[in-house]
């Protein structure tokens, strides 16, 4: 398994692999002075040389765009699809029609692979993670994959390149590392009773809090080597963590130790423990004010100056505080009192509460989009919203102006994870909302009175939600890329589209059959029918001749003792079973005499070779009346 781990590490770090074995798609074309180059390569280089990509293979897609002077063009919004199966090249007009079909999202002719999508991930109560391709416009979804953990996950963190997902699994004392291309657990990093899982801003270290009896603190994991490089005792938890913007300092709140530990990230040593108040439950960092806010269950918000690594202010509140969070611009903070059902708005410049107001029962989570703050409640299905551009305009003591929408059919209830259950959807003024009791994920577009759509989570209880953006993103100037899994085998058109400047181009792409998948699909053997024609007349004896081949080596299988053929008259009015005889090495035959005219379906089976009668390798024959 070491080579698999190192391949994953290389993928996570952005290493490139050079090999003569891998297939490669690379084509360039020009349009009105622009040069566009399309490159597609498999993420995992195959060990055996082959020419074509295989079905369901994970690939990296890249589009490079330059002008006439070879200058990279940034700020574009390209789109690409793989679809429209067919052997022949398509004209420019046909390509325009294909792209138009994909853009409008026709459910009658969907692409085989959409390179402009995002996936919704849900961390479930039952040791699974659902990976869903949401089609909210049509009220449907497509379950892309399921990730199976050894026990329920507690918290998670996504790597910066979105290729690795780190999930704490306290029931099995490890952090699972999920490859988001294959959706497989590629590594398990030992950590005793891991809980919070937070990636520092530069992505170099993953910080995981642990609570193993009297031992409590944070484990620091190198995201390149996937090794725990330091365990730092901080005090009894539960814990929450945050960092300054330069990843120089880590702040760890230790609830039952009533302290916040300040850790130097460069040396991985603890600088000090600050007694901030009774039961610190949450903390967040403002880059604008260079301050960390700490909320306390015992009441009050403490302000820690990052430069001094020391307390500079205490903001009094009633006991019962929960989450505190800064607005995206860092100018204001929101804090909820879970026990008193109160929302506070804090002015960071003065460290004073500007406004306070009653909210629904049990406010528990604060989430932000670019323009709106969201408040989720335990005892209500209502999600409250505050528009961020109005913060700071009211006078102290004025009521808080909120709007709301229904996030489900009933109260959310307590969610047993510190991970977010409300997240912004990629590239949109919209959020995804997980509802555990309803077992749904809703898509709410800002400005609407209710969610635009929702989907059931396949009878699983979601306790956190995550959006994985797989649309074409500008990785470097003029270079747009994403990763995707190919679909079924076939000959397709790779359609590329730029809106401004307008470019439409279709390129032929072949996706070959994966022998292993084919073996699972067909049930163990390839049936090669050798019958030269498919239409006969009544009274004829039809020599059903065929070979059996291994799906991987294509070697002919001789001497198989239990080969037989099932034929039935469509739609199943009558059927016959015929034992096959081996004419010569690897060549089998059944003499079939139809009893009446019509359409017959013929199947070959061999139990000893794992070839079941239900395999999809069907031969259809048309039997005409006798002349």
CATH homologous superfamily grouping of the domain at 2-115 and 475-513: Macroglobulin (MG2) domain
Mean pLDDT: 89
Give the structural class.
mainly beta
Described by strand count, sense and barrel closure, the largest sheet is: 5 strands, antiparallel
CATH level-3 fold name of the domain at 2-115 and 475-513: Immunoglobulin-like
Return Rg in Å: 30 Å
Tell me, what's the shape? elongated
Strand content: over 45%
Strand order of the largest sheet: 1-2-4-40-39
Distance between the terminal alpha carbons, to the nearest Å?
A: 66 Å
Tell me which CATH architecture of the domain at 2-115 and 475-513 applies here: Sandwich
Q: How many β strands by DSSP?
A: 51
Low-confidence stretches: 1-20
CATH class of the domain at 2-115 and 475-513: Mainly Beta
| Tally of separate helices | 3
Helicity, in percent?
A: under 10%
Provide a descriptive summary of the structure in words:
By secondary structure, the protein is mostly beta strands. Among the domains are: about 1-115 and about 475-515, Sandwich (Immunoglobulin-like), CATH 2.60.40; about 275-415, 7 Propeller (Methylamine Dehydrogenase, Chain H); about 520-625, Immunoglobulin-like (Sandwich), CATH 2.60.40.10. The chain contains three helices and 51 strands. The strands form twelve sheets. A five-stranded antiparallel beta sheet has the order 1-2-4-40-39, with no helix packed on it. A hairpin with a 4-residue loop joins strand 12 (about 175-180) and strand 13. The longest helix has 13 residues, at about 90-105. It starts with a helix and ends with a strand. About 40% of the residues are buried. Residues about 1-20 have low confidence and may be disordered.
